[in-house]
Amino acid sequence: MKRFDGKVVAVTGGNQGIGFAIAERFASEGASVAIASVDEQVHEAAGQLKAATGATVLPVVCDVTSVSDVKNLYSTIESTLGGIDISVQNAGIITIAKVEDLTEAEWDDTMEVNTKGVFLCCQEAIRYMRKSGGGALINTASGQARDGFIYTPHYAASKFGVVGITQSLAKEVATDNITVNAICPGIISTDMWDYNDRVWGEMLGEYAPGELMAEWVQNIPMKRAGEGKDVAGLVAFLASADADYITGQTINVDGGLIMS
Ligand code: NDP
């Protein structure tokens, strides 16, 4: 008997990076998993996940900023996999710019994906979870929901927003047997962090690729960057029966970088 046998899980941004690692964890622990992303590449990622785990994997192209796409995501999951027990709102984007250069479009896009996208998915998932008697929602925030970094006020605002959504919804659905929690990854080796390393590195000094990350990793008490599987472990715990009495919380997964 595996921990998530019979469970249906949705992971947005599940085709790569942290989201793929989360999807892989659930799939390897018995769940049927729907992975959603904007890119058609999600089909290829689903094939890899199925081959690696043997699980049922449903790829869905979905822009989390679109109400109709999000509605289609959850209705497809229900009609194909029979319901939704766990939904992980993980899709996110970042740009890095000095305050005088940050464009309105960057602000809007970041808030749309990182904040509105999380809300829209929670809203839709809750409709199904209320009907079926409960579930677990996990929202990906960031260390930037604790401490805003330089050149990313829009990203920090979007991730602080995720914590607000998490707390407000957790209170609203607390008696519906639905938990809502947020996670704050620190420095996790993914494409997003490669972008961060390159662009912050260029803006903060004469850093060669990889040097800024190496320097920041020295500030992590555990002296290593995280991997997707480090984040997946926390998400799986929050989605498990062991976390039934945990809701409205925001938990760091960052090797001790930010302690709170
Ligand atoms: P990646 O850039 O590797 O992956 C981002 C994912 O989000 C991709 O799957 C992408 O899909 C998806 N996505 C982007 N826009 C949309 C959209 N409009 N609709 C649906 N999906 C979308 O990032 P990470 O894996 O590193 O990050 C995952 C989450 O973790 C993000 O929310 C990020 O902010 C957060 N985070 C990451 C940290 C890190 O160090 N890596 C640290 C703290 C937080 P597609 O490929 O189709 O574009």
Could you walk me through the main structural features you see in this protein, from its secondary elements to its overall organization?
With 260 residues, the chain is α/β, with parallel strands linked by helices. It has one domain (8-188, 227-253): Rossmann fold. Helices cover 47% and strands 15% of the residues. The chain contains 8 helices and 7 strands. It has a 7-stranded parallel sheet, sandwiched between helices. Helix 5 links the parallel strand 5 and strand 6. Helix 3 (67-81) runs parallel beside helix 4 (104-132). The site of NADPH dihydro-nicotinamide-adenine-dinucleotide phosphate has 31 residues, from helix 1, helix 4 and helix 6.
What descriptive keywords fit this protein?
single chain; 260 residues; alpha/beta; Rossmann fold; 8 helices; 7 strands; 47% helix; binds NADPH dihydro-nicotinamide-adenine-dinucleotide phosphate
User: Number of DSSP strands?
Assistant: 7
The radius of gyration computed from the alpha-carbon positions, rounded to a whole number of angstroms, is 18 Å
Shape: globular
Element order, helices and strands? EHEHEHEHEHEHHHE
Q: Please count the helical segments.
A: 8
Tally of discrete structural domains: 1
Which stretches of 5+ consecutive residues score pLDDT under 50? none
Which quaternary structure do these chains form? Answer: single chain
Bound molecules: NADPH dihydro-nicotinamide-adenine-dinucleotide phosphate
Biggest sheet, open or closed, and with what strands and sense?
A: 7 strands, parallel
